[in-house]
Amino acid sequence: PGRCMARAEPPAASFERRVLRSAAEHHYLRVRLELPDGVARPTVAQFKQLVVSALRELHGEVGAALPVDVLTYEEKTLSAILRVISSGLVKLWSALTLLGFYQNRRCAFRVLQTSPFLLALAGNSRELVLD
């Protein structure tokens, strides 16, 4: 009658923060270079040099030494698929984003897709046409 029943307190919730790092060795980026009309379109070698110079401009010689491969390049659309070692993804992405000039004319890189899986870049659901 005058006694309080002691309630057992539930154990304090414990949270564990887990950061899952991709085990993939490489990341792939689908990019497009946007140039004003009338500017000569770069060849695949010039495109690769533009990527390396963007890395050098932002991250110095260490950035320029980052292994980046141009897997595909379409000169007509100025689109490419780049492969970079996963630890260099942020360096490459930031360098491309901040590049503003090609042959003293304004330009911009657009990163359209990125994935640790090359197959994921094979199709873009945004361009899918349904019957």
TrEMBL record:
GO terms for molecular function: ribonuclease P RNA binding. GO terms for cellular component: multimeric ribonuclease P complex; nucleolus. Pfam families: RNase_P_Rpp14 (PF01900). It comes from the Eukaryota. Transmembrane segments: none annotated. The keyword Metal-binding does not apply. GO terms for biological process: tRNA 5'-leader removal. Keywords: tRNA processing. Belongs to the eukaryotic/archaeal RNase P protein component 2 family. This is RPP14 protein. It comes from Tricholaema leucomelas.
